[in-house]
Write a structure and sequence with these properties.
CATH class of the largest domain: Alpha Beta
Distance between the termini: 21 Å
CATH superfamily of the largest domain: NAD(P)-binding Rossmann-like Domain
Number of helices: 14
CATH architecture of the largest domain: 3-Layer(aba) Sandwich
Strand content: 25-35%
Length: 582
């Protein structure tokens, strides 16, 4: 087995062969690896790299300019140009530019790079092109892939041959030319479609699952080699168009940002590990399961640790990490959705906090989530849930309770009325974090600006950049983005401090409804309207919406308990000693 203490990450002596590495997502990963390890990269691709662009393409930046220029060129030489031929010529120029850009960025990042045009399904061509480099290569990233999405009854043999050929035959060809004994690192770009399956992708799912199984097999044969099969979910880019991204968002499938995905790969190569397969991202949507008769109950246990949840370093009160209440909300939601694939979170009712979870000596060895179905139909399900644990002296501790409603079809987003996005003495959100009115660290610092604040409420403009799944730990964002929810609810703390001179902790939510999931890197607005307030309590509604007023989610009857003594505790918002994060 690989010696964990002597593992050596890639370095300047590492020579990566990257299939599909000239363009797209695989290219972005190669650039990130160059930035981290300053290695050498031989990129393989089917696209031609032009030695010099044709005269008509020079100084033409946009696709529209290229079309106009190539048409004028063919007209000047009295030749006809079909739409198909024009598209081919322009695609070749743009493709070549992208490859050159990849090569330049790798060099700028501290690496070395060259590009080889080769079809990895053509063994003779591949052998000829690779021959000068074969003996130097000690790392392989197999990122090449093709799609031919169709329902299985519509697929042709040629569809299967294309998809299977690039993924499986391509890998076989690469490993027939580069002995596995000389490889120190092997990274196979697989897909969640291989792990979970996906409608219309029988060939793609099968091919990627072969890569998964092969990674386990290769690890057995070569335990000293660092082998990874990474089952990626859909990326924000590459094969995911803006239209497809909107569709995936409506289906509660989170796309992986370039920053997040490349950081995951660098992290997996930076540290030792014997686990060859990693699933990164949400599962693809399953057809809705049939709802059986009879109400069921479930008991689901889990263990929590500070070390497994790096984001908790940014949610510290009194020197101790505290589980954000929105993470408990996500805890309920995620487990309900896992029980009934095809159904989506719609609302949460009667959410109460009895005793929050603090990561100190009171942390339990195990936490119990109890879910009981209290109503169900083919269109909706209602669960009663409770999270509890056992104290060191054997007593039951209740932490949270809620009702969760799932629906097969979520209503269209309604619009908020009477909201005001015009700044009235706007305040920079950074000020509230700096003054410890908001105790939250960087991963929760999403309030960009308080646009207006009155005795009746306020409106904030919010945005939060994505961070890695490793940092999200045991609470990865799925259909419910608890980090964004926390940022919207921070409006209560801002208002209480400004209008009442106090600060509070969450206690209850009467109803919370979600119409559309919120992705990271999305500008949103939180409009908070006060229902009642006193020296000890604030109750308000919080509506999360976009600039046009379309609602993402709304919380009715959010209640926090107020206490001025909390100001001293929230100023202690740093861990005394950060643990070694897993």
């Amino acid at each position: 087995m690989m010696n964990q203490s002597t593992y050596t990450p890639p370095s300047e002596r590492t020579h990566f062969l990257v299939s599909g590495g000239g363009k797209g997502i695989t290219a972005e990963n190669a650039i990130a690896l160059a930035r981290s390890f300053q290695s050498t990269f031989t990129l393989l691709g089917r696209s031609k790299l032009l030695e010099e662009e044709p005269e008509w393409a020079k100084d033409q930046d946009s696709e529209a300019d290229l079309k106009q220029s190539v048409l004028q060129h063919y007209k000047s030489i009295d030749k006809k140009l079909s739409p198909k031929q024009m598209d081919k010529e322009i695609r070749q120029v743009l493709s070549s530019r992208e490859i050159n850009n990849t090569l330049s960025r790798i060099v700028d990042a501290g690496g070395e790079a060259n590009y080889l045009q080769a079809d990895i399904t053509n063994i003779e061509q591949l052998k000829d092109r690779l021959n000068p480099y074969t003996s130097k290569i000690n790392a392989l990233v197999h990122g090449a892939g093709s799609l031919a999405d169709k329902l299985i009854e519509e697929k042709q043999e040629s569809d299967f041959d294309l998809v299977y050929g690039v993924k499986v035959d391509g890998l076989r060809n690469l490993l027939s030319l580069i002995p596995t004994e000389q490889l120190e690192y092997v990274v196979l770009f697989s897909s969640v479609a291989g792990f979970y399956g996906n409608a219309g992708q029988a060939d793609y799912s099968l091919s990627n699952e072969i890569l998964n199984k092969f990674a386990h097999h290769l690890k057995q044969l070569h335990p000293s080699c660092h082998i990874l099969a990474v089952d990626w979910g859909p990326w924000d880019g590459g094969m995911v168009s803006p239209q497809l991204k909107r569709i995936l968002t409506r289906k509660n499938i989170r796309v992986i940002s370039l920053e997040e995905g490349t950081e995951v790969l660098v992290d997996l190569l930076s540290k030792p590990g014997t686990k060859p397969q990693w699933v990164i991202g949400n599962p693809m949507p399953f057809p809705a399961v049939s709802v059986s008769e009879g109400l069921k109950s479930y008991r689901i246990t889990r263990q929590l640790s500070l070390e497994a949840n790096p984001f908790l370093a940014d949610h510290v009160i009194g020197g101790n990490a505290v589980l954000p209440t929105v993470c408990a909300v996500g805890w309920f939601i995620d487990n309900c959705e896992k029980l009934y694939p095809g159904f989506q979170f719609y609302s949460m009712n009667d959410y109460s906090v009895f005793k929050g979870i603090i990561f100190d000596q009171t942390l339990a060895e195990e936490y119990l989530l109890e879910l009981e179905e209290i109503d169900k139909s083919s269109e909706a399900l209602l669960f009663q849930g409770k999270i509890s644990s056992e104290s060191p002296n054997g007593k039951l501790r209740n932490h949270y309770q809620a009702q969760v409603e799932l629906r097969k079809k979520i209503p269209e987003r309604p619009s908020i009325t009477g909201f005001d996005l015009n700044p009235d003495h706007p305040q920079d959100g950074k000020w509230f974090y700096g003054e410890k009115i908001l105790f939250h660290g960087p991963r929760f610092q999403g309030v960009e600006e308080v646009l207006n604040i009155t005795p009746k409420g306020l409106t904030t403009r919010c945005d939060l950049g994505s961070f890695s799944l490793r940092e999200q730990g045991q609470f990865p964002v799925r259909s419910f983005n608890h980090f964004m929810a926390d940022i919207h609810l921070q409006s209560l703390l801002i208002w209480a401090s400004s209008q009442l001179g106090s600060i509070g902790l969450p206690l209850k939510i009467v109803v919370g409804t979600q119409y559309e999931p919120i992705s990271f890197d999305t500008t949103t607005y939180a409009t908070m309207r006060v229902k009642s307030s006193s020296k000890h309590k604030l109750i308000a509604d919080v509506i999360s919406h976009d600039e046009a007023g379309l609602i993402y989610s709304q919380v009715t009857g959010a209640e926090i308990t107020l206490n001025t003594n909390l100001f001293d505790l929230v100023k202690e918002n740093k861990l005394d000693k950060e643990p070694i994060w897993l």
